[in-house]
Amino acid sequence: MQPEVDRIAQPWGERTPYDRGGTWPVRVDSYLEPGMTADAVERWVPTASILHSNGDALDVAVAGDRIVGVRGRAGDRVNHGRLGPKDLFGWQANHSRDRLTTPLVRSGDRLVPCDWDTAMERIVARTRELMADQGPDALGFYTSGQLYLEEYYTLSVIAHAGIGTNHLDGNTRLCTATAAEALKQTFGCDGQPASYADIDHADVIALFGHNMAETQPVLWMRVLDRLAGTDPPRLVCVDPRPTQVARHATVHLAPRAGTNLALLNALLHEVIRTDRVDHAFVAAHTVGFAELAERVADRTPEWAADICDVPARSLREAAEIVGGAERLLSTVLQGVYQSHQATAAACQVNNLQLIRGMLGRPGCGVLQMNGQPTAQNTRECGANGDLPGFRNWQNPAHVADLARVWNVDPFRIPHDAPPTPAMEIFRKAEQGSIRMLWISGSNPAVSLPELRRIRAILGQPRLFTVVQDLYLTETARLADVVLPAATWAEKTGTFTNSDRTVHHSDKAVDPPGDARPDLDIWLDYARRMDFRDRDGQPLVGWHDAESAFTAWQECSRGRPCDYTGLSYERLRDADGIQWPATPANPDGTERLYTDGITWAAPDACESYGKDLATGGPASEAAYRQLNPEGRAVLRSAAYVPPREAPDAAYPLQLTTGRTLYHFHTRTKTGRAPQLNAAAPEVWVELSATEARRHGVAEGDLVEVASPRGSVRGRLRITDIRDGMVFLPFHYGYWDTHQGAGPGGSAGRAANETTVTDWDPVSKQPLYKTAAARLTLVEPAHGATSPAPTTTASAPTDPRAAPPTRGGPSAVAEQRSG
């Protein structure tokens, strides 16, 4: 038994060092509610984490038909028994007393309880009315990255072939759309090339805009344990904030917001100039090297230093480390995806891997990371608007193949235009062409940019809004119908993490009241709508999670994300299996592209690519000419400045982001006592230089304003780069008297200030490029900032803030296995 560790104050636990090429030691983390012992647990039910994208496998402790705790699974390939703070404590949100337990319908300005028949018939009646009057384009669906594969697939069939609308997307558009697009641009198809196990073998790990310590804390534990070994990897970190990754990095580059592409072009320049290129690999497996080399020929470190405001010598040092790596692993996340020229920048990370020949071998690969636990399922099942199974909407043969699977006419599946991304769905609702919007597992009234506009859209009388969620969120308060949903551990299904690992999650307890699984809600809707295939049989022919999984397997057959070698029985007995998994390869695939590029050929690819500057889709003919043999495409792009730049009125660059202790809009983590106590309120981060310039001090109440709105919070002075101000985006209004939005001139939600702008290629909103100003509202007078002290928000002066603690119940039992 190891000593007890406060996993709020020490979120990554104790170290278990190991060396390169070794096996990550097991460490089993667990937490049981006060008064509960392991002997009193009646059963342990297998599942995986639902509060980040890492896919940590865990068992849910059940006693008296309620969840009483969790423990990590020692044998699982993802976490080897470890759990992060959100894993350990987040499950308590299931027990919240304000869970939705009955459907609600709008009556005037109030939501009133009703039964399921009343709620569903109101939805069905509105659907039929709009279909008859305006056609399928009057309906839109906006979903999540936190549901199960079976639920996404069912929704995808309903939207694509039942309704026949192209207006289907998820809040994965906010965090993972650029990951998918960058993979399609380079490799012709979605799917992460690398594996978490590559951390065990890499001698260099480069993290681009990826605060791994807070977004994937268990993966960061793996890196920390490598760093504690005798031959630690060198880290290159690109991030404007002093994250834990930055503090452990050999080289930390902190560029101006919006300049990632310039920085990456300079790194490519140096690698090519010093001839660290694997020319044999490039010749055999890529196209576009000559164009890339020409593009970056004059993009020197000095050129980038002026744009990015980082030392040219640091850029050279980073390029030397990346260029000299024996085994290079690169990871990418929101610092790239939510910033200017997102897809273009993410593609340059792919280019670094490819020109170095670092692909398909242990320790060599790229992880274009996800932000949510089932974002990968959203994409592969088509709940982000793409065709399921990574089929190409521009390829008639792919559409026909999907029509065969669903037994419908190909013309019934919308494919005459690209899928409608989330920001366009909301614009169409604003303009009135979308008249019904069904939102499931998402809270756009807090998470989308420019919230005043989003609230106005959702509040339109002409827009019929359905919200399917666990709580009366800020979005649900604006709905016409609210459906109470079951959540993780209250339903059965599968979900897939960022490195393609599939886990099965069994139902552990019943949902509260009349809440239902999202799958059951959509099956009921499909039945009431009486969707039929071309033979007159029910279009949605399954009845539960396992039969839905079987239907999905057939849809995935022969596709890059092939699930046909899996089954519920096999997944219950396994410790995570990575797709593709076929009958011939039932144990799955650790790395993609171990023997060349497999899904980039013109007849096989998921996408023909897009123009990195405009986002315009390429034609099949153009792609065939560019890439007839199906190789990886080295796509290059020129840096251009962000559209919104600081000026005299708004002199700071505003960036938003996550904290370790919360997930999205806090609807779950804000209801877990330890997590809420660790970060109870919004705060503002500024450098010491900027604090002096603005005449503010630690703990002062300040206001951050942009041309769109403002937020107030207590100031934390950190080592963030000068010229920048940071807001965490998790905080909304559900736990305040303000309800759905700010009651006064200043708000609490960071997205009151963010700009309605998006990457032209991935259509992902940009949360890291707005201009802002900061003003003093009230001196601290002894008040302290609520920002955590353990993470990127650690104070420059540790004496300025009390240490982060999680309260009396924050100690997690920690056992070595």
Care to describe what's here?
By secondary structure, this protein is an alpha/beta fold. It contains 25 helices and 29 strands. The chain has a 7-stranded mixed sheet, with helices on both faces. Strand 4 and strand 5 (66-72) form a beta hairpin. Helix 2 (116-133) crosses helix 20. It is globular, with a radius of gyration of 25 Å. The termini are close together. The model is unreliable at 808-812 (pLDDT under 50).
Structure summarized in a few sentences:
Helix content is about 30%, strand content about 15%. It has about 800 residues and is of the alpha/beta class.
Question: How are the elements arranged and paired?
Answer:
Layout: E1 5-6, E2 28-32, E3 43-48, E4 57-63, E5 66-72, H1 85-89, E6 104-107, E7 110-113, H2 116-133, E8 139-143, H3 149-163, E9 168-170, H4 177-187, E10 204-208, H5 212-215, H6 217-227, E11 234-238, H7 244-248, E12 251-253, H8 260-273, H9 279-285, E13 286-287, H10 289-295, H11 301-308, H12 312-324, E14 328-332, H13 334-337, H14 342-355, E15 365-368, H15 375-381, H16 396-406, H17 422-431, E16 436-440, H18 444-447, H19 451-458, E17 464-469, E18 481-484, E19 493-496, E20 501-505, H20 518-529, H21 545-556, H22 568-573, E21 577-578, H23 620-626, E22 632-633, E23 652-657, H24 673-678, E24 683-687, H25 688-694, E25 701-705, E26 710-718, E27 724-728, E28 770-778, E29 811-815
Parallel strand pairs: 8-9, 8-16, 10-11, 10-14, 11-12, 13-22, 14-15, 16-17, 17-18, 23-27, 24-26
Antiparallel strand pairs: 1-29, 2-5, 2-29, 3-4, 4-5, 6-7, 6-18, 19-20, 20-21, 23-28, 25-26, 25-28
